[in-house]
Amino acid sequence: MEISEAKKRIETELKIQGKSQRTARMYCYYNERFLEFIKKDVEQITTEDIKSYLAELMSKGNNPASVGLAKSALAFFYDGMMEKGIMAKIKTPKRQRPVPDVLTKEEVKKLIENAGSLRNRLLVEIMYASGLRVSECASLKVEDLNLEEKMGLLKRGKGGKDRFFILSEQLVIDLKEYLAEKAEGPYLFPGEKGPITARSVQDVMKRAAKRSGIKKHVHCHGLRHAFATHLLESGTDIRVIQELLAHSNLQTTQFYTQISKQQLMKVKSPMDML
Fold first, then answer.
1. What is the reported pLDDT for 274?
2. Angle, alpha carbons 238-241-243 (nearest 5°)
3. Secondary structure class of 163 (helix, strand, coil)
4. pLDDT at 135 over 60
C-alpha cells in the first residue's frame, strides 16, 4: 500500500468517527513520517519497526506528549484499521503533567476588572464561569445560550461531543447588556471572518494580566484550571466537575485534587490526633 493510499484511508476513517481536523492532521502527519522513515510496505510493518521510529523521535528530543501522540496515531492505523495487533506491548514514557499555579478568586476578579471593554470582560467571565476551553469560548454562537435557564449548549466541543455548560448570574446580566448592543450575526464574539480567533482571546488575557499586576503565568486555560479547582474547594462532587469539564476519564479530573491547596490544608495529620 502506497503512503498516499494509507493517508486517504486514515482521513476517511477519521471523518467517519467524527474526529477533529487537528486530530486528522496529526494522525496523518505521524503515519506519513513513519512510512518515510521505515521505508517498508504497510503490510510488512512489525512491532520492532514501530519501536524503532518512536525511539528515533525520543532521540531527537521530542517530549513524551508528542511521542505518545505519534504512538496513538500509529495504533489507530495499524491496530485499529489494519487489525495487526502490533502495538499492545509498546510502552512509552508517561507525560509528566506539571502542577499549575492556580489563579486565586481575587486574581480572577482582577482579570475581569482589567479586561477592558464589555466584550473582553465577557471573554474572561465565560471561560471562568463555565470552564470552557479558549477555542470553545471563541466559537460560541448566540443560539447556544439559554439565558433564562442560565445554561448553554456547546455543539461539537473537544472530541466532537455536545455538552451543556453553566452560566453564572452575573454573567447572564452582562450577556444581556452585551447582546442588547451587539450587531446582528450568529457568533457571540464575531471576528473579521467568522468568530473571533483563539489568538485574539489569548491577547485579551495577556493584556488583562499585565494591567492586573499578576506575576503568575496567566493563560486562558488557567481560567479552566481555576474553575475546576474553586468548584472542588467549595465541595462540588468531582463527578459533577468531570461532567462540566467533559472529561471522558475521571482520572483526568482527579488531577485537580492535587492542585487544590485548600483541600490539603483541611486534612489533619494523624500526629495531631495522638
1. 45
2. 115
3. strand
4. yes
φ, ψ for residue 148 (rounded to 5)? Answer: -65, -40
pLDDT digits (tens, 9 = 90+) for 197-249: 999 999 999 999 999 999 888 989 889 888 888 888 888 877 887 878 777 66
CATH number at residue 188: 1.10.443.10
Cell of 127: 471561560
The reply to whether 74 and 39 lie within a common domain is yes
Same domain for 130 and 225? yes
At position 245, the amino acid (one-letter code) is L
- In terms of pLDDT, which residue wins out, 254 or 23? 23
Cell readout for 169 is 448570574
DSSP 156: S
Identify the bridge partners of residue 154 per DSSP, sorted by sequence position. 163
> Which helix (DSSP H) or strand (DSSP E) does residue 233 occupy?
helix 220-233
pLDDT tens digits, one per residue of 72-121: 999 998 888 888 888 888 887 766 666 667 888 999 999 999 999 999 99
Rounded Cα–Cα distance for residues 204 and 115 (Å): 7
Contact indicator for 74, 33 with CB cutoff of 8 Å: no
| Residue closest to 173 by CA, chosen among 125, 231, 244 | 125
Cβ atoms < 10 Å from Cβ of 224: 20
Whole domain around residue 118: which residue ranges?
105-262
Judge whether 214 and 110 are in contact, CB under 8 Å. yes
As annotated, the active-site residues are: 133, 158, 221, 224, 247, 256
Cα separation of 195 and 138, whole Å? 6
